[in-house]
Amino acid sequence: DLQICQHRAPTCCTKKMEESYQAAVRRERTQSIQALNFELKYMIVGHITAFQEAFESLLRFAENRTSSLFETAYRPMAKEAAEPVKELFTDISLYILGAETTVESAVLRFFDSLFPLVYSRLINPGITDLSEDYTECLRLTRQDINPFGHYSKNMVTELSKSLWASRMLSQALSLGIEVINTTEHAALTKECSRALVKMQYCPHCQGLTLIRPCVGYCLNVMRGCLASVSELDAQWREYISTLEYLTNEMAASHDLEIALSGIWNSINEAILHAQLNGPQLSATVDKVCGQPKQQEGNLSSANIVPAKEVAETQTFVMAHTSLNSKRREFINYMKRSRTFYASIAERLCDGDLVMRDSSTCWNGEDVV
């Protein structure tokens, strides 16, 4: 009553044993594919972690630099500016990780929060009444009177270019893991599991436990079994090319490191621009929001202190170098995996599964 291992000679197998063999080949094939996938998956997961650590390091550096700008050059508003600065960098981090947000909304939200502080602490440092209504009026007025000139828009443009490639790379790496996980659990067809039993276990039914399949026979069976997986070949090659393009974009003109390290300078220029246009801004704000209460003997404007470069260059250079070397190492490894899905049958038939250095092997019917 055998269905798969039918043979003219006497046999020691039963139908129940054939069913056990089918369960065994399914389990073994999943384990074999998982073993093949392990190195590739390990590299991608490792690089996702490494990229995230490097991004976080650069973001922390840029955030510290921006905070130092307020503490050294704009001390009157440093304490109150801490929260908007923190929010800006949290939004940037979430954007890189793929959150449903935009660079433009993050930057403009920051400048909306910044304007009431610049207006009440630097342009009119004698204001004592900063009610919620007055603060909200200043926030809304920012969008109409554009106190920060072209600097806020320039910051959006610069960051959008560089962060886009980082965001796409982050999403692409996650997609790679998803593809590999899916192929690991691709179900074997009934025909495939029967073919695998015939190849691996039918010799056992005749007591030939040491005979292994012929190489050509193994390749034919594996290619048939993995036809759906190897069809991913063209898309996988295209995926590797896309990763290469994104890493080149990150390293080229849309340099993430340069854009992040330049945030403090853009903010500084924006604040200086607002201070220099203080009288005109005050006149417009008074018309729209009314005149707030002032302390006696108020100076019309705070002293303008140009910010000096903050000395944290060493940290930044290390993070920058680390990110660049990780990109190169990662993309070189991924380029070597271009043929991963095209050669999956060959690699499964490699090693102990087939007979390579002997004159006898199993061809599915007999020993040859």
UniProtKB/TrEMBL annotation:
Any matching Pfam family: Glypican
Main subcellular localisation: membrane
Topology in membrane: Lipid-anchor; GPI-anchor
Family matches, as InterPro entries: Glypican, Glypican_CS
Cellular localization per UniProt: Cell membrane
GO biological process, one term: positive regulation of canonical Wnt signaling pathway
GO cellular component: cell surface; extracellular region; plasma membrane; side of membrane
Keyword entries, A-Z: Cell membrane, Glycoprotein, GPI-anchor, Heparan sulfate, Lipoprotein, Membrane, Proteoglycan, Signal
Domain of life of the source: Eukaryota
PROSITE patterns: GLYPICAN
Sequence similarity: Belongs to the glypican family.
Function: Cell surface proteoglycan.
UniProt-recorded name of the protein: GPC5 protein
GN (gene name): Gpc5_0
